[in-house]
Amino acid sequence: TLTHGYPELTDLYVVEGFEQAQLLAHVAAIEQQSEHPIALAIVKASQEQALHLPQVDDFRNILGAGIQARIGHDAYLIGSETFLASQGVDIRDLAEKGTEFSHAGKTPIFVAVNTRAVGLFVIADTVKKDAASVIAHLHNMNIKTVMLTGDNTQTAQAIARQLKIDKVYAQALPDDKVKYVNQIKQEMGTLVFVGDGINDAPALANADVGVAIGTGTDIAIESADVVLMGKNIQNVAHAVSLSKATFRNIYQNLFWAFSYNVALIPIAAGVLYPAYGLGLSPVFAAAAMALSSVFVVSNALRLRRFSVK
Predict the structure, then answer these.
(1) What is the pLDDT of residue 265?
(2) H or E element: which one contains 119?
(3) CA distance 20 to 304
């Protein structure tokens, strides 16, 4: 949501006994069955080297965690450090390098073959040019920002520091995002969740207001309350500004309509007639009522000229 979503494979580290080209070909063969941006980056890297991709069997995508598959007699596990560790893989030999890349704001993807950690694929993505400005805009409106991501903690913290985001929850599975949404709602109050991916759909549906980016997945759009046209996330701040302007307009209309009726209804009822002989004929009362409606509608139509400074 905050990055371009078109990451690239920047580094590939392979343990002794494995060849980079072969491991890249095997992992790309597995990843080409996934539509995740990270998977597309690995497949693209293999295509640039014109590598032959072997046949893959028993492909299984574990939502928000990683991938399991088999090539020949070898079982592959691909995913985060947490995912491989949960499958009983000893990743100590690769963990330190993974941490180094994470501190640099890159995403390390660990690969294990037959429960042995054999490779580290390093993916880098760039932050959208309008991401920093939208965060600053929200802060100027006294709105706190929290980032929920399935990425590892170091990478998430690096992005958060760059964008000056208030709080970060990393390595969050789809169910974790729902848990964090409920937690944040209790701690901070009304919550708007912005997302564009399959993993965001549960949280979008559970937030006070779910906002989907128009270029996101269909399930995210279906789960959201608000859909922003295009991919410009600056529209998130614009939507909040427009909502505030709309509420100001409603309050203005309520105030003027209430004041108008408080002033004219007693006159129409004849309150001033005994003392001053002043009244309001039905004809003028009807005209005054129409004028009130015209005023309210005209004030509401000013929103058509709404623009964000």
Answers:
(1) 81
(2) strand 116-124
(3) 58
A 10 A CB-CB count for 251 gives 10
DSSP secondary-structure letter at 237?
H
Under 8 Å between Cβ of 106 and 123? yes
**Entry field: residues in the chain:** 309
Separation of alpha carbons 66 and 178, rounded Å: 19
Contact indicator for 78, 111 with CB cutoff of 8 Å:
yes
**Start-to-end CA span in the chain (Å):** 23
Say whether pTM exceeds 0.70: no
Phi/psi class of residue 153: alpha, beta or left (left: φ > 0; alpha: ψ in -120 to 50)? alpha
Within 8 A by CB and 6+ apart from 141, the residues are 237, 240, 241, 244
Helix (H, G, I), strand (E, B) or coil at 213: strand
User: Residue 176: its pLDDT value, please?
Assistant: 87
Type of residue numbered 132: A
Quickly count helices (H) and strands (E) in the chain. 12, 11
DSSP code of residue 190:
S
From CA 9, how far away is CA 122, in angstroms rounded? 6
* SS3 state at 67: strand
Handedness of CA 153, 159, 162, 165 (dihedral sign): negative
Average pLDDT for 75-81: 92
Q: How confident is the model at residue 244 (pLDDT cuts 50, 70, 90)?
A: very high
